[in-house]
Each structure stands twice: as structure tokens, then as C-alpha cells.
Design brief:
The complex is a heterodimer of chains A (130) and B (378).
Chain A lengths: L2 E7 L4 H11 L4 E9 L2 E8 L2 H10 L4 E2 L3 E7 L4 H11 L6 E8 L2 E7 L4 H6 L7
Antiparallel strand pairs in A: 1-3, 1-4, 2-3, 5-7, 6-7
Chain B lengths: L11 H19 L40 H14 L7 E6 L2 H15 L4 E5 L4 H9 L3 E5 L9 H10 L5 E6 L11 H10 L6 E5 L24 E5 L1 H5 L5 E6 H6 L22 H37 L12 E5 L3 H7 L2 E3 L2 E5 L6 H12 L4
Parallel strand pairs in B: 2-3, 2-4, 4-5, 5-6
Antiparallel strand pairs in B: 1-7, 6-7, 8-10, 9-10
Classes of the chains: A alpha+beta (130), B alpha/beta (378).
């Protein structure tokens, strides 16, 4: 089941907002996990109609990250991202892209685009968000 | 034989809609303070060319059987930019693009063809269109943190390149970031690459706005071919001003020639990203260059920098924390309240907003904006 992650400023209404956007299009949320990481709200969920959900969120101006990315949280310090990159390099797992989603309050959330394999997830299990 | 089209008039309703639109554009173009478009230009002497289906299809340096084009003007424009950016004489190639994005796409396309295994490094304050280009070109890429002023974090870059030193680096350097006008120092970047003794690397500069600022200031940051870059993209509709978006991309010809063999794939000598290309925008750029020239552009840039300082002074008088980077006309301040954003088309990103003191920005406009910001709670 493909998952979608929404990362945005933490707000009590985020979960309700995401639910409402999807409900308006008749998209069912099948699993859902919401948490606050530093000052961010992170909602991770799976739905019955994956592509339509991504379009609905985009149309509503809600930044969503698709299944193609692994989201991690790292310290905001020089070389922190490089050290994560090193793990993949040493394991000979190819990263297609590395993108900073949010960065403040001493931490950053980063989207790693690679094959979402158990081996890849194991490499970042200590910093894994979704 | 008579032409197959006949003149038909718009309905009164359609005419009315156009009139309303015209009046709206008069207001909106004067109040655009958050986007880097110069709204002061007069190309009315070129309007007669709107009667022709000008199309600079393909390579501006290769003659075409289609002769309704402005290629000779385009080549003059390219020559002007090549000289300004210290491109090797007779060893540059480029074209007038549809805007900065196409120029970035061309530069990164060239980089990919030269270094197919390369990884693109770019900062988190890079314009979002670069992410799209990377996706289109299927280039591996790693985003690097930025420093507080918007420059790429050189330590982060160093540490990341160190890990991937077996892979050729492709650097997308920002010569003026979108939100803060920060310039990535290409000297420092090359020092890092040299420290790792990397034999092959490529530097493309996204100089959308500052590519028309740095040539005209006394102490420019390193940014051009003299500083060792491989290609550069600059917008034409920003500082110069144009009725339609346009830009210029320049690259080293020897690199362009090296990838010429890849034309086998498509069976054409057409080296531009677009096939059919706007033949009017080279005329606009050529006209501005001929009328203003380096001294006119210098005067324009100096005026914009002075206006930026004026805006900073006025904002600080109201206890608003405003600042700008060296040689930047982008004035950064805390994100204003929503009514201010809507009235002035102020661009915001998270907790900051900015105004860009383009040539159409007057002291009166700055005073009015500062009054609005100071008079509303963010």
C-alpha cells in the first residue's frame, strides 16, 4: 500500500484539513498516523485512490510527499546530510535525489528519493520519519 | 489568389473585456514590488514587427531555409552577453531562451551529456524550477543547506562532495537567489572541488536577475566565464524588461561541440531545447542593448541599489528588520500581513517577505508600502 506524507507547520487543524480535502473527493483514508516533530506536523497515511489523493492535496495547496521518498529527520549541522548520504554510498544504494523539505529549530526534514526497500529503510531507521 | 482569412470584429462584450483587462494590468504592473520584472520599457517602435510570423527556429548560428527570423539580431544579443560575461572569444554558443528555466535546462542538459554519471549539487534556496528540470533530465541530485543569508553552505557542500568524490560533480550555482538575492561564490566552490582533486566537474550559473546586476557594480562576486564557469542563464524580462518572458543562455562552444555526436539520436543539428523560438524577444533585447548600452544599464542598476538602500532605511525607521545581500536589489524583511501581500504582490517564503527594487519602483511606492507594512499586524 503506497503511503503519502504531509509535512507542514504544526497546527491542530492539519489532520482535519487533510481529511476534509480527501473526503470531498470521496477518497478513503485506510491507515493514518499523525505526529508532531519539532515544530512540524507530520501526517502519514494510505488511501484507496493514491494518485487522486496526491492531485487533491496539490490542488488544495497542501505539500505532500509521495511514496517515492523516504523522509528522515537530521540535526541541522554541517555534514549531517553527508553522513546519511555516506550510508547509502557504502551500501551501494543509489540515491536519485536528496531534498530538504523543512529546516529550522536545529533540525531538518529531508526527502530521500530511492528504492523504498527494507535495506534502505534499515539504513536510516534511527532517523526515519516515514 | 485571395487570402483565406477574413477580418472579423470582436463583439462589444469582448472589447469591453479587453478594456477591463488593460485597466487592471495598468494598476497591477505598477504595484508589483515582490517580483523581479522591470515594468518600465517602451518598445513601441518595434510593434510593426508583430505583423510578421517571426520564428528563430533552431540554432541561431545555423542558417535556415525559413527566412522570417531575427537571427542576426539574436547573434548580436549573444555577442553582447558573451563579452559582458567574459566568454572565450569565438568559443561560446548560446541562444535567446523563453526565460531562465529554459536556460537552466540547457545548462544542465549540457552538463548531463558531458558527465552522464554526475550528481547535481544545488542549494535549498534554488528556484523551484530547477527541481523540475532535474526531474525532466533524470539527473541525480543532492540539495545542500544554505547559510542564513541564502548562500550555499560551503561546509555542507564540501562534506557531501567528499562522500561522492568518485562521481563527477555538477554545480548549479545561484547568482542571486530568488528570495534573498544571495550569490554562491564560485571561487570558493572551485576551491572545494580542487581540494578533492576532482578532474571533471561542471558549473552552471542560474543568474536570472543578478546576471544583469553584477556586470555593472564595482565589486562583483565571481560569477562568469572568467571565474571558471561552464554555462550561465540570465533572464531578459527581469532587469532589462520585455513584454514577454525571455532570457539568454551561454555555454562554452567546445562543450557544445563535444556533445554534437549525440545528435545521432535525433538526427538533427538543432541544438536548442525549443524548436520554434520567439523571434520578437531578440529584437526587444537588441533594442534595449542599443539604446541603453553598458552605461545605461549601469545607471539603471546603481539606481535600483540606491532604491534598495532607501527602502531598508525607511523600513528600519519603523523598526522593521530589513536587510539585503551585497550587490542585491532584493530587500528582505519579516513576512507582512496578508492584506499587504495582496495589494503589493509581495512574494513570501515561510517567515520572510521581500521587495525587489526594480527600475519601476519609486520612492513614493516604497513609502506607501512601508506605511502599509507598519500599519498592519503581521
Amino acid at each position: 500500500m503506497k503511503q503519502i506524507t504531509v509535512v507542514t507547520e504544526s497546527s491542530p487543524g492539519l489532520l482535519a484539513q487533510v481529511s476534509e480535502i480527501l473526503a470531498e473527493r470521496g477518497i478513503n483514508i485506510e491507515t493514518l498516523n499523525a505526529e508532531t516533530v519539532q515544530d512540524y506536523g507530520v501526517v502519514i497515511f494510505t488511501v484507496d485512490r493514491y494518485d487522486e489523493a496526491l492531485v487533491a492535496l496539490r490542488d488544495a495547496g497542501v505539500p505532500a510527499v509521495s511514496e517515492d521518498a523516504i523522509i528522515i529527520r537530521i540535526a541541522d549541522e554541517p555534514g549531517a546530510l553527508a553522513r546519511i548520504s555516506r550510508r547509502f554510498h557504502d551500501a551501494e544504494i543509489r540515491l536519485r535525489s536528496v531534498r530538504i523539505i523543512r529546516r529550522d529549530a536545529g533540525h531538518g526534514l529531508v526527502a530521500l528519493s530511492t528504492e523504498r526497500t527494507e535495506r534502505a529503510l534499515e539504513l536510516v531507521k534511527d532517523v526515519l520519519i516515514s | 489568389m485571395e487570402a483565406m482569412t477574413e477580418d472579423k470584429a470582436l463583439t462589444a462584450e469582448d472589447e469591453g473585456r479587453l478594456d477591463d483587462f488593460y485597466r487592471a494590468m495598468e494598476v497591477e504592473s505598477s504595484r508589483s514590488l515582490g517580483y523581479p520584472s522591470n515594468a518600465v520599457f517602451d518598445y513601441s517602435d518595434l510593434y510593426r514587427f508583430l505583423h510578421f510570423p517571426l520564428n528563430n527556429i533552431g540554432d541561431p548560428f545555423v542558417e535556415s531555409t525559413f527566412r522570417v527570423h531575427s537571427r542576426s539580431f539574436e547573434r548580436d544579443v549573444l555577442r553582447f552577453f558573451a563579452k559582458m560575461y567574459h566568454a572565450p572569444e569565438d568559443d561560446y554558443w548560446g541562444y535567446v531562451t523563453s526565460g531562465g528555466t529554459e536556460g537552466n535546462m540547457y545548462g544542465l542538459y549540457l552538463a548531463r551529456e558531458l558527465l552522464p554519471e554526475g550528481i547535481v549539487y544545488y542549494s535549498e534556496e534554488t528556484h523551484y524550477s530547477v527541481s523540475k528540470v532535474l526531474r525532466v533530465l533524470a539527473l541525480r541530485n543532492i540539495m545542500i543547506k544554505t547559510l542564513a543569508n541564502g548562500e550555499i553552505d560551503y561546509e555542507d557542500l564540501r562534506e557531501t562532495v567528499r562522500i561522492h568524490r568518485d562521481v563527477p560533480p555538477i554545480i548549479l550555482a545561484n547568482i542571486g537567489t530568488t528570495m534573498k538575492g544571495a550569490v554562491d561564490n564560485v571561487d570558493t566552490i572551485q576551491e572545494i572541488l580542487r581540494d578533492f582533486a576532482l578532474p571533471n566537474f561542471y558549473i552552471h550559473c542560474d543568474a536570472a536577475l543578478s546576471g544583469m546586476i553584477l556586470p555593472f557594480v564595482k565589486d562583483p562576486e565571481p560569477y562568469d566565464f572568467a571565474a571558471g564557469i561552464d554555462s550561465i542563464s540570465v533572464s531578459g524580462h527581469k532587469m532589462i524588461g520585455s513584454p514577454m518572458p525571455c532570457g539568454v543562455v551561454l555555454a562554452k562552444k567546445k562543450n557544445v561541440d563535444r556533445i554534437a555526436r549525440s545528435v545521432e539520436y535525433v538526427g538533427t543539428l538543432d541544438t536548442t531545447i525549443s524548436g520554434s523560438r520567439n523571434g520578437l524577444s531578440p529584437l526587444f533585447l537588441w533594442s534595449a542593448i542599443r539604446k541603453l548600452g553598458p552605461s545605461g544599464f549601469r545607471k539603471m542598476v546603481v539606481g535600483c541599489l540606491k532604491m534598495a538602500d532607501y527602502a531598508i532605511d525607511r523600513l528600519r525607521e519603523k523598526d522593521i528588520d530589513a536587510w539585503r545581500n551585497n550587490n542585491s536589489v532584493t530587500v528582505v524583511f519579516p513576512r507582512p500581513a496578508t492584506p499587504v501581500l495582496e495589494k503589493w504582490q509581495i512574494a513570501v517564503f515561510r517567515d520572510i517577505g521581500h521587495m525587489i527594487t526594480m527600475p519601476h519602483v519609486t520612492r513614493d511606492l516604497v513609502d506607501e508600502l512601508v506605511g502599509d507594512i507598519a500599519g498592519t499586524e503581521p
